[in-house]
Amino acid sequence: MTGLARAPYDVAALRARFPALAAASDHVPLDNAATTHRPQGVFDALASFYMAANANVHRANHRLGTAATGAYEGARARLARFLGAAADELVFTRSATEAVNLVARGWAEPRLGPGDAVAVTLLEHHSNLVPWQEVCRRTGARLDVLPVDDQACLRPIELAPDVRLLAATRVSNAVGTLVDTTALVDHAHARGAAVLLDVTQAVAHLPLDDGSRRAEFLVLSAHKAYGPMGVGALRASRAVLGEIRPVVFGGEMVERVDALGATFRAPPHGLEAGTPPVADAVAFVAALDLLDELGLAAVRAHELELLARLLAGLARVPGVEVVGPPDAESRSGVVSLDIPGGDVHVAATLLDLHDVAVRAGFHCAEPLLRRLGRAGTLRASLASYSTVDDVDRFLEALAEAVPACRG
Percent of the chain having pLDDT more than 70? Predict the structure, then answer.
């Protein structure tokens, strides 16, 4: 294969900052859409918090309590700044899934009833589909599913007049389709619909776009962006956060409690019941610092080169079919493929014997893959630390695995 132009940053030096990759130099990490590895800075921040600031937040006047609260609120401000928002426009959650459910139950459900509709795209992860199914079931609202074409690209969007909210991903986690969220937000807003964007699969791969800035709700998870598992976020304006009804109660989200009732703090704290994921939020800052250091435009340029190489290589592997958009520019970070007559789960196991980590199955996007006529796919997903060697070793191992998994 032909070589690549020089990467926009030193990939080998970057990999050395990730303990899991430095300790296993032969490992080919191509399951990054499921979760990324973490840099040493994240582990250092976790250890530092527990050793030097181990206390609950907003609950103590002692030194450690003050340090913990300062670190937690500093992390809120840091992530808000990364997303182009103010600190009081960001709610910490345990995941993007919890953030979607908070909007679905706390904002949408009180506003929906028979005669209303919620729209989602067929590209959605189950976490941005099932909550809307449940809300529509409870309220009698209709769920509209916006279709895709045979290459998993959204067809021209036309929302019904009664759609109150559109929930959409910026990038398909299953097949990598890159959604024009600016056009999507323009269309929804012109029809009076609010927008929730799931940027979980995009936040570590692409610069924030205009649509993501203007959407009423933005949700993400840290573990897809080099941060810890167990922490996510919801970003919304102060006014919109004030419209969300709490759906989990107790802990420091209360303002005053008597035996028969309670009042709640203003957002964002009034939407954060119980002990929040303090250490994980604090450690996420190290991952955000890394992303800013690399530059998301540079990460995107690096991944585009690798995507092009991967797609060109797959075209030369007999017996595989690429699922989703045919070109690198229409994707972000993911290539999904099928092996007609073969078993993608067997292929993933055979690849693991070559120390190549990929994912097989529906990827929490079963309606999409069934629409595309697939009973699962084999997914290779990139990260900022992915290399030419990763791509080439995957292609070589896949060429050996395909005949074997077709038996």
Answer: 98
Measured CA distances, 374 to 175, 317, 335, 371, 399 (Å):
12, 19, 14, 8, 20
Mean pLDDT, residues 162-189 taken together: 97
Per-residue H/E/C for the chain: CCCCCCCCCCHHHHHCCCHHHHCCCCCEECECCCCCCCCHHHHHHHHHHHHHCCCCCCCCCCHHHHHHHHHHHHHHHHHHHHCCCCHHHEEEECCHHHHHHHHHHHHHHHHCCCCCEEEEECCCCHHHCHHHHHHHHHHCCEEEEECECCCCCECCCCCCCCEEEEEEECECCCCCEECCHHHHHHHHHHCCCEEEEECCCCCCCCCCCHHHHHCCEEEEEHHHCCCCCCCEEEECCHHHHCCCCCCCCCHHHEEEEECCEEEECCCCHHHCCCCCCHHHHHHHHHHHHHHHHHCHHHHHHHHHHHHHHHHHHHCCCCCCEEECCCCHHHECCEEEEECCCCCHHHHHHHHHHCCEECEEECCCCHHHHHHCCCCCEEEEECCCCCCHHHHHHHHHHHHHHHHHHHC
- What gap in Å lies between CA 287 and CA 386, rounded to an integer? 16
pLDDT value of residue 3? 44
Catalytic residues: 364
User: Structure tokens of 364?
Assistant: 């929490």
**How many residues appear in the chain?**
407
pTM of the model: 0.95
